[in-house]
Amino acid sequence: TATALFGSCSKDDNQSTQTTPVTIKITDAPGYYDAIRLNIDEIEIRTSSGSESLDVDGNPFNILEYTMGKDTVIAGDDVPSGMIQEIRLKLEDEGNEIWVDGVRHPLKTPSGQSSGVKIKVQDELIPNVAYTLLLDFVASKSVVQTGNGQYLLKPVIRAIPVATSGAITGAVNPAASLAHVFAINGVDTVGTLANSLGKFYFPGMSEGTYKIVVQPSVAGYADKTIEDVQVVKGNVNDLGTISVQ
Predict the structure, then answer these.
(1) Do strands 236-243 and 40-47 pair parallel, antiparallel, or not at all (unpaired)?
(2) Residue range 165-187, pLDDT digits in tens
(3) Helix %, strand %, coil % for the chain, to 5?
């Protein structure tokens, strides 16, 4: 379980700046690994009126424990109010690792990411109005295996303003089809993997009408498409069981 002790280091000396209490949570889209342990150092939030670095002082945690709608709080503090311009998630150099088939491998972070993983968010922090941001770590796209058997960590993260979104969930039958599931709205596509029980979950989806495409990765199972899937703010649309026999 991730435990975080919250602190901050402001880069804005203007004491009159209005602030917004911000909570950062993290969740994960499944990946076919035993565990992925992340050692996050800090999260920097830059707004139109200043910036704040939120310390993450907990131990490395297994992000794969937080899937299917589960999340954990990793940081929180007051942040200068205004339009969010950028969020950077900074990892420690050591302590990031992956377990594959019972074997531990260090997760190396490319040197070019020493300044942090940039996460784009278009939203406004209103003075004194609590704001919660959910970071969706996409495990299947964030880990890259090299030709010499090493594993690189190149985080792919979606930022989700919790108060302005809905969700889609369901289950693929049989789970052994190891399906990739995509939610498509116009030119925007979000992908995830069905877990070992065949279940999938898309958090933080904007209101609208989606097409759900299920693509099994195991030969012998057919693709399946579901049209006109509605997402409403604050609601979870459960599609039930989708058969790909």
Answers:
(1) unpaired
(2) 788 999 999 999 999 999 999 98
(3) 5, 60, 35
Across the strands, what pairs with 6?
56
Pairwise CA distance, residues 75 & 241, whole Å: 36
Residue 56 CA to residue 74 CA, distance in Å, equals 6
Q: Hey, is 217 helix, strand or coil?
A: coil
Find the length of the chain.
245
Coil/strand/helix, residue 207: coil
pLDDT digit string, tens, across residues 20-42:
999 999 999 888 899 999 999 99
115 three-class SS: coil
Token pair listed for 236: 């979870």
Cis omega (within 30 of 0) for bond into 174 = yes
Q: Which residues of 162-173 are buried (b: 16+ CB within 10 A; e: fewer)?
A: eeebbbbbbbbb
Other CB atoms within 10 A of residue 43 CB: 27
- Count the alpha carbons within 13 Å of 28 in the hemisphere toward its beta carbon: 23
pTM: 0.74
Give Cα 189 to chain centroid, integer Å. 15
Q: Which of 57, 52, 21 is nearest to 40 (CA)?
A: 57
In this structure, how many other beta carbons lie within 10 angstroms of the beta carbon of residue 93? 11
Closest CA to 23 of 63, 60, 67, 74: 74
- Rounded Cα distance, 239 and 76, in Å: 34
61 three-class SS: strand
- The distance from CA 117 to its chain's CA centroid, rounded to whole angstroms, is 12
Q: Look at residue 172 in the predicted model and tell me its pLDDT.
A: 97
Where residue 174 falls (left for φ over 0; alpha for ψ -120 to 50; beta otherwise) is: beta
